[in-house]
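Q: What residues go here?
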């Protein structure tokens, strides 16, 4: 039994389902299968990116689902090497997805060594005005990158998608987001497949037992109660259902504090300044 997914409001008067499907490392055929299964059981928010090489499979799943476009929330991202030509990049993504617009278009990494992300933000403003995307945001931005775009633009990103899980809680960056009206999305919410939260944080097993939930469900519920937006990735049907079934219980204030205490400043993915790949 699943319960409706909460939505949260963004700074451009839109809202986003707080839980979705992550699709990193699922190429077209797998992405088609997993997205189809996810849509069938109630997921309505999918996170993809040009670099994941799965927009075609996801587009096919969306079309075949028969779900009205307005009921879906689709995010894709501008890859580093495409920053100078954002319109071409979003047009190609839309062709692959078979959509006329996405709900959210993100600059995937600031890739500061390339020196093109500030201009890319100005291009995204125009893509939004032209209706190719409803909202625009960023990913893997540090405060200095947010400052750089604020210096040339009055449009504040609706959100910043960053690595975030109990071992790496990004408290300072989240405080910065709160000041600026920027929502936070957690990538790698379960540890990105690079770290096993259940062995790194043995106390999670006690919490899971207390709530009669799995460790993954407790961790995802923690993200939700922190006001974060999450889209765990799995290729297993049973885990898709498990990850969606987190709206029927509440972690107590004391237990939320306990999980906040597990922050170890332990980043498992690339640091923003290092993500300059082609
Ligand atoms: P994740 O934290 O979602 O972890 C995925 C791992 O958790 C997988 O190994 C999976 O097998 C496992 N898992 C999923 N559900 C489980 C369950 N119920 N029980 C036990 N294990 C479970 O990592 P992710 O895929 O890196 O992050 C989620 C999404 O964030 C991605 O798929 C992608 O859409 C996005 N992302 C964005 C960036 C970025 O730079 N913007 C980087 C990485 C990921």
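A:
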């Amino acid at each position: 039994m699943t319960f409706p997914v909460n939505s949260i409001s963004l700074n451009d008067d839109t809202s986003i389902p707080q839980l979705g499907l992550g699709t990193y490392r699922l190429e077209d055929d797998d992405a088609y299968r997993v997205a189809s299964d996810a849509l069938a059981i109630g997921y309505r928010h999918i996170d993809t990116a040009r670099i994941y090489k799965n927009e075609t499979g996801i587009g096919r799943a969306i079309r075949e689902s028969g779900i009205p476009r307005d009921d879906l929330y689709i995010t894709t991202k501008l890859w580093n090497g495409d920053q100078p030509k954002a319109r071409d990049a979003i047009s190609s993504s839309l062709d692959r997805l078979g959509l006329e617009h996405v709900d959210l278009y993100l600059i995937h990494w600031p890739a500061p060594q390339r020196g093109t992300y500030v201009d890319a933000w100005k291009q995204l403003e125009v893509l939004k005005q032209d209706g190719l995307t409803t909202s625009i945001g960023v990913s893997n931005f540090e405060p200095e990158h947010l400052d750089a775009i604020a210096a040339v633009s009055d449009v504040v990103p609706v959100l910043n998608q960053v690595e975030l899980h109990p071992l790496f809680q990004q408290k300072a960056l989240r405080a910065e987001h709160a000041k600026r009206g920027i929502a936070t999305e957690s990538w790698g919410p379960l540890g990105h497949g690079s770290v096993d939260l259940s062995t790194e944080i043995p106390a999670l097993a006690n919490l899971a037992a207390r709530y009669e939930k799995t460790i993954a469900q407790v961790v995802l519920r923690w993200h939700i109660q922190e006001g974060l937006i999450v889209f765990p990735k799995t290729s297993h049907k049973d885990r898709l259902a498990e990850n969606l079934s987190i709206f029927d219980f509440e972690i107590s204030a004391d237990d939320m504090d306990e999980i906040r205490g597990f922050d170890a400043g332990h980043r498992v993915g690339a640091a923003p300044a290092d993500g300059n790949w082609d």
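A: Context that may help when evaluating the design: The chain has one domain: 10-267. The mean pLDDT is 97.
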